Amino acid sequence: MDMQSTVEEIVATVRPLLRRGDVASYIPGLANVSPDKFGMCVAMSDGEVFGAGDWHTQFSIQSISKVFSLALVMSYDYDSIWRRVSREPSGSAFNSMVQLEADQGIPRNPFINAGALVVTDRLLTLTGDAAHSIRGLLRSESGNPSVDVDRAVAASEAQHGHRNAAMAHFLASYGNLENPVELVMENYFDQCALEISTEDLAKASLFLARHGVSAGGTPFLSPNQSKRINAVMLTCGTYDAAGEFAYRVGLPGKSGVGGGIIAVVPGRCSVAVWGPSLGPNGNSVAGIAALDEFTTRTGWSIF
Amino acid sequence: MDMQSTVEEIVATVRPLLRRGDVASYIPGLANVSPDKFGMCVAMSDGEVFGAGDWHTQFSIQSISKVFSLALVMSYDYDSIWRRVSREPSGSAFNSMVQLEADQGIPRNPFINAGALVVTDRLLTLTGDAAHSIRGLLRSESGNPSVDVDRAVAASEAQHGHRNAAMAHFLASYGNLENPVELVMENYFDQCALEISTEDLAKASLFLARHGVSAGGTPFLSPNQSKRINAVMLTCGTYDAAGEFAYRVGLPGKSGVGGGIIAVVPGRCSVAVWGPSLGPNGNSVAGIAALDEFTTRTGWSIF
Amino acid sequence: MDMQSTVEEIVATVRPLLRRGDVASYIPGLANVSPDKFGMCVAMSDGEVFGAGDWHTQFSIQSISKVFSLALVMSYDYDSIWRRVSREPSGSAFNSMVQLEADQGIPRNPFINAGALVVTDRLLTLTGDAAHSIRGLLRSESGNPSVDVDRAVAASEAQHGHRNAAMAHFLASYGNLENPVELVMENYFDQCALEISTEDLAKASLFLARHGVSAGGTPFLSPNQSKRINAVMLTCGTYDAAGEFAYRVGLPGKSGVGGGIIAVVPGRCSVAVWGPSLGPNGNSVAGIAALDEFTTRTGWSIF
Amino acid sequence: MDMQSTVEEIVATVRPLLRRGDVASYIPGLANVSPDKFGMCVAMSDGEVFGAGDWHTQFSIQSISKVFSLALVMSYDYDSIWRRVSREPSGSAFNSMVQLEADQGIPRNPFINAGALVVTDRLLTLTGDAAHSIRGLLRSESGNPSVDVDRAVAASEAQHGHRNAAMAHFLASYGNLENPVELVMENYFDQCALEISTEDLAKASLFLARHGVSAGGTPFLSPNQSKRINAVMLTCGTYDAAGEFAYRVGLPGKSGVGGGIIAVVPGRCSVAVWGPSLGPNGNSVAGIAALDEFTTRTGWSIF
């Protein structure tokens, strides 16, 4: 198989889908992105990189940042985060408060917003600056020192952040935040507003395909921790379409409303795709189609 | 690795856990099983079989039968079952009606009871006798022609089946049953009352590790269908502990309240374990511990 | 005030509303009723009766029968029914199973279907024939010995009764039925299929305006029991529009999908209205408008 | 009937219940109140007042303030508040977010916290200072110019107010607040921290028994508005025990976690009771018993 051709063909194949769905519109920084963009990058575990389309263009990382905050917390603190957040699929919309109430302030998993706030809160306690730590991880793993927060997007998020503020206060009412609500919110909005390209994102995710080994060759996570993050991505990484994603793509993956998705083939490679138009569950329509095509062509489903 | 020793050591390791949790008690046929039983069998894709403990003892297959009914329906009818049942994790208890109501009679997945009733109903239409077809599949794949329904258990299920009857009538009220409620119930209770040993169960599940190829060497499912059933097992196979199971075990699996669990290592082997005492989510406590130990020792997690 | 003129004027006033909403269509016996029918009758506590429109025409009593089954059970058994059913408003659609599950098989109140099934079950135990007892009460209180079950409607209800059957099996699964599901269903469908006119219905409800005193002048219920049934009607009598009904009409009332509604002015009179077209919550649109008009004109709101 | 003796006897009767239940403990200002206090006052529509026990002792008005904020909004703005809040019983715990989410940011009624925040927000827009307006109404209707906010309680509420802050941000996320979250919260905490005695509270509630006529003899609300507030109190005034309250007491009423309850006998009198120990639904145990006794002795149930 010629991976470069494969990636190019996939990008060509999904191009007709780019205007299916809708670009996220709740903040200007996302609403103004052209739906005609599409990028894809495959980073092999040996370091080789293959890309096509707008694979060098930066976009808003949004919820994909939750994988990196979780990895950082686990790297510092092994397993204790699981006392404050579960790891079960949520079975309902990604920003729902219903289950949070039923479960007494323990979010169902670290990838719904409530759970991500708890992870960010923990990272804040561990490092003093959660968003800064995540930026540092993305920079060192991608090898690109210019990865940074889009200040306009972060400010917009804060302005339109009533729903996340509600969630944070709700968590605080159950005693499940260690830091002041405002500080957690600020870090959370910053981490979601990080800008990155599919190339840098694929590279930065590679430790999950290399059993925890970082770009520098040293262990960032243990093999066990890396496997477990992949397991959580598979069951919870694409909001309430996780079952559909496992069925069609068959890889651990995590999406964001900026239109990006990462997927991991354990032992082989990581993949990043980006297409701004989202389907009803908040995942990139063309991005999922590209990953579906990818496992069909390579046969690299984990199943 | 010496698989026979591995299996024996695992069985020895989990023995102290056998009385953790509770044996299912809603019908006599299950309640009277000794909690001290434990069996485990690994069936390799080349046909070799390794077992230890009570691996030849028969037990009630219960919900594990749902994998075989789904496989049969897909073998006859490719993909059309997904118009009548979703494939998302349920995020709530395995016998809940709440989501069925919210989703207008479309069960969340084929492994919760409501979804399994729909699959059995479809199989009944396709073959004229759903339980008979499932028994046939188990017999031919295990090579054991004496696999059969435990009539006493089936009768008890029917007697204590108000909750399932409620579910079936509820599905019927949404027009999501093709056959009379009573007939669907009868077939469903029969399929759950099939008796089987871990040896026969591991063998009968092997087609999921062999990309759909049956014991006789002919394709029973396409590789794609086999992968997809594995994906549904991973996200939905262990009630509302699917996230936990993926995190700890890292394999597609399906459990039943009889205490059995099957797990699949795609391309390599299938595993069946059986320990009657169940944890709070209805999965065998010792069975899950054995599978956790199995992936730790073999390194065969899919992540 | 001239009550006869008042009733005639109200009937004239609501006539333009008769085609607002939709006639219940789930069974032919209800679907075939003309939406242009409207009847109203006021029965004073001294026995005088005032009517207008189609006030002698019979219609299907449906859920209004639940008031009479509850009254009968309380007459035999004082207060013990409240161990098996609560008396709180349900806050959700009238046939929902969600709350029944959350409340472990104890229905929220005796006027949602689940609660009414429990009341009918109890009445069946107490009298041996629930529907027969309710018919007897309607006959003796209305003075009309020809009140009877519409057999065609009862048969249709049974044929389309999957949702109620689901509810009954669900109650049985929690041990909250004393009689076989089939027998409870049969009685329930019969009681809902009783045919009655607004004249007979207003007369039959009069004991609730007379502190429990029957048509014959003897106590059927104690004053306290009568008050309490009125309280349950006010908070729970019109499905999830009970707050709206209290706000607009300000009287205890109970509606049915046949288009009938009864209302009680304690110490003064009972009122029955009938208009087949139903609003989104299953209550007669013209019927509610007529009762609103009635309290506005008479000033007889309880508030 | 000698009302003074009646009130004294009721207070004596409920005294053994004073330590049943628990004093609200989430803020010091409430937790430090002695459970042995009990006061009761009946204010007749002609102005006469009867009291017993600690009827002159001040306590925290808490949720009873919601009746006065609603009355003020209706006095300025007739009926438009009902576009932003419903008037149906909630059927679940008083501070639940579940229904708010299901109903797209429209609270079920003005007496659950979410609904009260919307009412306070509206009053803030109408008057510029919601808490100040409510204090003014209580002062003018009770004739006691020293009714005021307990600053320590208001500060504590703010400190422990994460749950209410969550609700306010949640409402804001649906566009159902007109003023900044912080300003609405401040007014809400202030109105809940108003201190008042049963004497002043009974007098201040009298307009609801006098068809809207104020203490000064001029109309504050129309008779229709007064009736409608009573209707909302009956169906929604005591959290998710409204059905029970209607059944046992049979009067419109509103409770607060400070242990106070008001009840209205339309056309006759208003009643205020106060006992700090609360039952499982957040209502004063002795207070409800006293009101039950009151309607039993006087026969003044509205049913």
Automatic annotation (TrEMBL), chains A, B, C, D:
Q: Do you know which SUPFAM superfamilies this protein is assigned to?
A: beta-lactamase/transpeptidase-like
Q: A single Gene Ontology molecular function, please?
A: glutaminase activity
The organism sits in which domain of life? Bacteria
Binding-site list for substrate: S63, N113, E157, N164, Y188, Y239, V257
Q: Which HAMAP family match?
A: Glutaminase (MF_00313)
Quaternary form?
Homotetramer.
Q: Any idea what this protein is called?
A: Glutaminase
Question: What is the organism of origin for this protein?
Answer: Arthrobacter cryoconiti
- Gene name for this UniProt entry: glsA
